[in-house]
Amino acid sequence: MADAIFENPRLVAIYDPLDPDRSDLAAYAGIAVEFGARSVLDIGCGTGTFCCVLACLGYSVTGLDPALASLEIARSKPYADRVTWVHGDVSALPASLEVDLVTMTGNVAQVFTSDAEWASVLSAAHGALRPGGYLVFETRDPAKQAWKSWNPRESLIRADIPGAGPVETWNEVTAVDGELVTFRGTTVFTSDGAVVTFDSTLRFRSREAVAASLSAAGFTVNDVRDAPDRPGREFVFVARRD
């Protein structure tokens, strides 16, 4: 089940306007060029920005997400008609799907908190890739403790959004248990005073743990790169299907 930030219609409607700078996606588009990919599966595609960018560039694209409300936004974007949208988790992927590149942008990899869930995602990615294809994803470096800034003071965003009016939104950590960090997001809609919250848990795996899980799933880690938009704070794993 997807978190409310991806399913609640009011939160989904302001998701893109609150994060308009998606320059991080240029690195992923560049990787598609680097490896000569022509077909891409984006796991956890959300509101579909990256899928539509790739479709505009002429790629064959499949976008997968469990949040129907997010997919409805995705389907309304330019070039969305060139994307195959799949609603569900990795079990919903067509058995016949074969792509050159699988991506998980925006730290999607961290939402899979259990070992079994993460192994299932890696297995599905492996199964969807042609031999020699690549899996590319980012995940935060736990040593940097990004969650320490997830508090009302440092995470507060105020914005005036067309169609929604002024909003205030912030995050606040509610629990840290080993690799698991749970936080609550709060959004206040000034126009009518509505307060909408959601709770989310992310897993901060070490570089070594991620590499081991990829090896167990039949991948070879070719490279671990720096995230261009958050240098020194995230790992970008580039893994080849064996």
Keywords:
2 domains; seven-stranded mixed beta sheet; four-stranded antiparallel beta sheet; 28% helix
Strand/helix succession: HHHEHEHEEHEHEEEEHEE
Summing up helix and strand content along with how strands pair, one would put the structural category as alpha/beta
User: Structurally, how many domains make up the residues?
Assistant: 2
Strand order of the largest sheet: 3-2-1-4-5-11-10
In helices, the fraction of residues equals 25-40%
- Our measurement of the CA-to-CA distance between the termini, rounded to an integer number of angstroms, reads 31 Å
Q: Give a count of the beta strands, DSSP E runs of length 2 or more.
A: 11
CATH topology of the largest domain: Rossmann fold
Oligomer: single chain
Low-confidence stretches: none
Major sheet attributes: 7 strands, mixed
Average pLDDT reading = 96
Radius of gyration: 18 Å
Q: What coarse outline follows from CA principal-axis ratios?
A: globular
